[in-house]
Amino acid sequence: MSTVSVGRASVLDQYERDGYSIFRNVIDADLIAEASAHVDWLAKRHPDVRTEQLGHIYLRDDPFWIRLISDDRLLDIAEMFIGPNIALFASHYISKPPFTGQTVLWHQDSAFWPLEPMEVVTLWLAVDHSTPENGCVRVVPGSHTREIAAVRPNTEVDNVLGHEIACDVDEADAVDIVLRPGDVEVHHPNIIHGSNANVSPHRRCGLTLRYIPTSTRILGEEQPYPSALWLRGDLGVNSYQPVPVFDPARHFPFRDSAAWS
């Protein structure tokens, strides 16, 4: 039984108190297997790109990615936090290869994002098992109530973002988010979080999904934003990317591709 059906009040209470919630068994094994194969396919198409960096610039014209991010099971979770009018702001596979997967230094997402107002929720979909050994997400519960801190560059450590929060973080306060494939972790844009390097023989892959209410404006000169997609409810204030037509010659083949032809 999917924990999408867990009591709304208890989930929202935890999110308000701690800044994150976990939903178990959200996405079925067949679709997760396709997502895993999709990551492998993307890695072969972009051999010069680290698999921690397979962001929306490589996904914007990808029917399978849009099929995945528009799955009603994910949108139903997002709706619990941001309401019925939903768009995608950004999305990113962070796939840490065995032994060499990069760390993600402590940060708050809201310090980086061009959104006004900062009404957004992140869903982190586990494609692989995510454990302390292979570099699972770590969060500092309750830190979402703090002000947004400055960020500073850090290239001394091999890391995904190249930046970190410009204040001390007590790692003793952090919680490991241990997930199975198909589980979803949800977190607040202000929560302090990061992840360690993958020192295990097992890949650790997850897909981040940044959903916004359609009343939140995406700022910046490039409009529509590369990964801005309308998904549910009213269109709101942004312009959006068109939904691509599936082309077997250039797109990842997947089970439901006929619906995108």
UniProtKB/TrEMBL annotation:
Q: Which domain of life is it from?
A: Bacteria
What InterPro entries does the entry give? Answer: Phytyl_CoA_dOase-like (IPR008775)
Entry keywords, A to Z: Dioxygenase, Oxidoreductase
Endpoints of the signal sequence: none
Q: Does the keyword Oxidoreductase apply?
A: yes
Keyword presence, Oxidoreductase? yes
Q: Which SUPFAM superfamilies match?
A: Clavaminate synthase-like
The GO terms describing molecular function are:
2-oxoglutarate-dependent dioxygenase activity; iron ion binding
Question: What name has this protein been given in UniProt?
Answer: Ectoine hydroxylase-related dioxygenase (Phytanoyl-CoA dioxygenase family)
- Source species taxonomy: Bacteria, Bacillati, Actinomycetota, Actinomycetes, Micromonosporales
